[in-house]
Amino acid sequence: MVAITDKTALFTKAKLMRGFSDPSRLSILETLLDGPRKVNEIVMATGLSQPNVSSHLSCLRDCGLVSTQSQGKFVIYQLSDPRVNEILNLSSSLLADVARGVYECTRYEPETKLLTDLSKEQING
Amino acid sequence: MVAITDKTALFTKAKLMRGFSDPSRLSILETLLDGPRKVNEIVMATGLSQPNVSSHLSCLRDCGLVSTQSQGKFVIYQLSDPRVNEILNLSSSLLADVARGVYECTRYEPETKLLTDLSKEQING
DNA sequence: TCGTTATATAAGCATATGGTTATACAATTA
DNA sequence: TAATTGTATAACCATATGCTTATATAACGA
């Protein structure tokens, strides 16, 4: 077996982390922190559309962050590994300390632009 | 102080995690796992262009993942918090176990398409 | 079997993202 | 001061991303 090159590992790790880097996927993962859920339960909990949730779930499963189990016509999703929970918890913990910096981040701010004023109020208030 | 809404926290956390979700940023962060580095050292270590590194560093700093310290005309970057190291290590650890799934992920595969054949050989071989 | 419910996929669009080149700015040195 | 070196920013482009609508597939119930 050929060793996985640094470059390949890098791309793969980045791909893995993409699972956490989108608000929709993150809300799905956080929903699953409470335990296994059917797709429609995830749809309800997150408020996202069914096709959108389904698409994100496929991605998360392909990337190994969640696993599935079929039950009749239902499909039950769950976090696949305790380290996924750990990363979610670490990011929450880190968020609490660096929130100010993140809010002021001028990159990737399209959606959050509207939130900025309120956000600053919230963190500084 | 108004509580930070779930939705706002979600967006912010996702933004934070974006720092880890790109191969270039990840290579910068992993370079910094070895300790503080000047920008040009990061450029050398990663093989990325100087403006590209500088741009990613700005993002990482704005998002709170790295911090800086000036030394004459040099700027020294370092990981800002032990939890950043932890997340990097967890993702490496997780990668080792779910690599197969990630490689076969059909989403976000533009750059890795060319690597696929080699990758499968590497993981399965 | 037929309709209904649960989930997945496809096509298409608006926009975000990452990279490059060129250039600005800042600090050091001759 | 002028030239050089280190870093940051701007403008631009090709492409990836996420969402919506429409539709397919699958399992269940009447």
Average of pLDDT of chain A: 81
CATH architecture field of one domain in chain A: Orthogonal Bundle
Give the overall form of chain A.
globular
Instruction: Give the oligomeric state.
Output: homodimer
| Order of strands in the sheet with most strands of chain A | 1-3-2
Low-confidence stretches of chain A are 104-125
Could you describe the 3D structure shown?
Chain A has 125 residues and is mainly alpha-helical. Chain A has a domain at 1-83: Arc Repressor Mutant, subunit A. In chain A, 60% of the residues lie in helices and 11% in strands. Chain A contains six helices and three strands, in the order ααβααββαα. A three-stranded antiparallel beta sheet of chain A has the order 1-3-2. Chain A is globular. Chains A and B meet through helix 1, helix 2, helix 4, helix 5 and helix 6 of A and helix 1, helix 2, helix 4, helix 5 and helix 6 of B.
Question: What's the SSE blueprint?
Answer:
Two copies of one chain form a homodimer.
Chain A: H1 6-18, H2 23-32, E1 37-38, H3 39-46, H4 50-62, E2 66-71, E3 74-79, H5 82-103, H6 116-124
Antiparallel strand pairs in A: 1-3, 2-3
Chain A binds a DNA duplex (30 and 30 nucleotides) through helix 4.
Considering the chains and any ligands shown, give keywords for the structure:
Arc Repressor Mutant, subunit A; 125 residues; mainly alpha; 3-stranded antiparallel beta sheet; DNA-binding; 3 strands; disordered C terminus; 11% strand; homodimer; globular
